[in-house]
Write a sequence for this structure.
């Protein structure tokens, strides 16, 4: 079973891009290494991917501060569950837990303005990708993207994605998406970090740097 | 600061929908030291509402910008350089502001944005760091200190705090530099410049840091030069350049140089 996700988010002020993909037995994710600040950017290696457990990754974009605070909150709660009950939440359960938290805070005085992608590998169900947005919608999808970059990349995914992609084909597909962003997207995103989740766990793949603008 | 509040920001909108995150408190009567934005009227600090359901126009708070602060890591620690001008509109309120806050003997914090916000929260941070030391019998790491600060101000997100600070120090993992602001950003990095003159400073430091190995002397000169160039171009930065060096034994106040003296010195060197 293959899943490819591209997640990127562009707001007027902040812009973060995440690309995620999963392929037959695994999931690949990608997120750009950039923290935008008004009109400058602070290039750094701040990870937008939060490891919820050995086989679950959470990609969190949105309002500054909210992202890290919410993601770390979810991360610690998932770990607490494991400590209390002796076993880990499945990706599906984790996604629903996350969504529930987002929904609970939505109509409070302090809603979290974050968009999320949760990817995980379940022993029985295989790889799974869950798309969540700041209004706490939840959808399981073969591939996904957040932000303005989604407009550019989703069609590529629609066209070339197949459920039975091999790992290399999946990475190539992500590269296609990045090239498109590099070509057409107004913001310059210098590098993307890619991760793959499969039954062995989470693996860091090589960072992707788009070649100079065409 | 024993300065009378000269200007009240006229374009502050106070609105409390009963949602704390959207209310903007006033606290803008003190002179501001500038937040991360280039000077110009078109720029305003637009605090974004969390759920943009389209209710109400974008609330803007005009901050009185005017500062250049920078810090960068290098082989022998961290260099912290700041200017010392405070402006209230087009009036120069002070040329001798201390924009580096000495949190403890091995941690420094810089000040940009609201002076009261910066000094208050960093003082509070100093207290928390001391409590940490007493409880754990070891010094707090720069990462932990910056996280404490970030978590503290996150509680007040959307309520009108204005603070863009760099937490610089040396801990067991070596030199540490974090940028923390009142919007909730907390970022680790090797180089940061904050304030209306930050762009100009970036230009100098980025080009100067290309040669990897800098001696302490060279790094200090670079920091000093960067602030000088920023004050040259940015109307809201000026006064003196205060330079600090953070190394394994803590921080040292390296120099305080008047920008006009530096100008003459550099002009003479060119000739």
């Amino acid at each position: 079973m293959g899943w490819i996700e591209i997640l990127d988010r562009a707001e007027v002020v902040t812009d973060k891009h995440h690309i995620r993909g999963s392929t037959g037995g695994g999931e690949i994710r990608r997120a750009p290494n950039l923290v935008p600040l008004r009109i400058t950017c602070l290039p750094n290696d701040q990870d937008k991917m939060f490891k919820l457990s050995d086989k679950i990754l959470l990609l969190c974009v949105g309002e500054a501060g909210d992202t890290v605070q919410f993601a770390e909150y979810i991360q610690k709660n998932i770990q607490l569950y494991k400590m209390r009950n002796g076993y880990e939440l499945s990706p599906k359960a984790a996604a629903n837990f996350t969504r529930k938290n987002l929904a609970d805070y939505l109509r409070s005085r302090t809603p979290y303005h974050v968009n999320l992608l949760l990817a995980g590998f379940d022993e029985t169900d295989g790889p799974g990708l869950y798309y969540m947005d700041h209004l706490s919608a939840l959808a399981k999808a073969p591939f996904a993207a957040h932000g303005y970059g989604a407009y550019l990349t989703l069609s590529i995914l629609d066209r070339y994605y197949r459920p039975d992609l091999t790992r290399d084909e999946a990475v190539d597909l992500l590269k296609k998406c990045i090239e498109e962003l590099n070509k057409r997207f107004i913001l310059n995103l210098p590098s993307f970090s890619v991760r793959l989740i499969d039954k062995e766990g989470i693996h860091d793949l090589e960072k992707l740097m788009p070649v100079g603008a065409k | 600061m024993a300065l009378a509040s000269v200007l009240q920001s006229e374009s502050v909108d106070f609105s409390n929908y009963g949602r704390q995150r959207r209310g903007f408190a006033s606290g803008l009567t003190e002179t501001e030291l500038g937040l991360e934005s280039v000077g110009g009227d078109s720029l305003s600090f637009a605090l974004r509402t969390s759920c943009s359901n389209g209710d109400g126009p974008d609330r803007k708070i005009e901050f009185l910008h005017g500062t250049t602060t920078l810090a960068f890591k290098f082989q022998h620690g961290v260099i912290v350089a700041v200017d010392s001008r405070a402006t209230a509109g087009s009036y120069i309120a002070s040329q001798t502001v201390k924009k580096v806050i000495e949190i403890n003997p091995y941690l420094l914090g810089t000040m940009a944005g609201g002076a009261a916000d910066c000094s208050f929260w960093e003082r509070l941070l100093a207290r928390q760091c001391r409590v940490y030391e007493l409880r754990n019998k070891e010094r707090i790491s720069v990462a932990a200190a910056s996280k404490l600060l970030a978590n503290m101000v996150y509680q007040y997100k959307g309520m009108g705090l204005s603070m863009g600070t760099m937490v610089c120090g040396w801990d067991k993992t070596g030199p540490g530099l974090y940028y923390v602001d009142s919007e909730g950003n907390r970022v680790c990095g090797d180089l940061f410049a904050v304030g209306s003159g930050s762009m100009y400073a970036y230009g100098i430091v980025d080009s100067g840091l290309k040669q990897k190995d800098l001696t302490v002397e060279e790094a200090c000169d670079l920091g000093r030069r960067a602030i000088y160039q920023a004050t040259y171009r940015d109307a809201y930065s000026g006064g003196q350049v205060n330079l600090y060096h953070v190394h394994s034994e803590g921080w040292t106040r390296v120099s305080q140089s008047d920008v006009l003296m530096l100008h003459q010195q550099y002009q003479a060197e060119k000739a």
In short: Residues 66 and 112 of chain A are 6 Å apart (CA to CA). Chain A has four helices and twelve strands.
